[in-house]
Amino acid sequence: MPYTSEKEKMLAGMPYDSWESGLLADRMRAKSLCAKFNRADPTDLDGRMAILRDLLSFKDTAHMEPNFFCDYGYNIEIGSNFYANHNLTIIDVCKVSIGDNVLIAPHVMISSATHPVDPVERQKTEYGSPITIGSNVWIGGNVSVLPGVTIGDNSVIGAGSVVNRDIPANSVAVGNPCRVIRTI
């Protein structure tokens, strides 16, 4: 299937030019909304979440603490009963799907973006791969979730882990690289 726009290439996980004017405008909109959310009165819970409703797709019961950062927002789908502590970053060049009842500790980075290894290509393009986080998942502090990863339902990712491969459901996984240490 031929892709006619840089956005279509991006969403398909193909190499694309992230500086194309439409994508740049989309990123600037998302960054503006993130900045508005991050500066909002912390006691105005409904107002802060209203800002995020303009940016993300989430069900009725979700809560995030500032600061929150993302690239586009429209590629992020969050289930119900979601909680993210301070300093969550989601780089959403491809779809990032998060299930119900997910808890995210402070300083977590979820990135669907990556770059070519070839230095010449790296100057011109980037690409991505979707991320799926199942339901009833707890992600500890300072975790990095890398492109293309699926974390199965009911899993726990230990603090400081770098998740660079799929984690099956009902697992406790830790480390760099993140590995299953036991089942639940």
Word description of this protein:
The chain is globular and about 45 Å long. The N and C termini lie far apart (42 Å). The strands form 4 sheets. It has a 7-stranded mixed β-sheet with strand order 2-5-8-13-16-18-19, with no helix packed on it. It has a 5-stranded parallel β-sheet with strand order 1-4-7-12-15, with no helix packed on it. It has 184 residues and is of the alpha/beta class. β18 and β19 form a beta hairpin. α2 packs antiparallel against α3. 22% of the residues lie in helices and 28% in strands.
Largest sheet: 7 strands, mixed
Helical content stands at 10-25%
Order of helices and strands: HHHEEEEEEEEEEHEEEEEEEEE
Structural class: alpha/beta
Given as residue ranges, the uncertain stretches (5+ residues, pLDDT < 50) are none
Determine the number of helices (DSSP H or I, runs of at least 4 residues): 4
Question: How large a portion of the residues is in β-strands, by DSSP E?
Answer: 25-35%
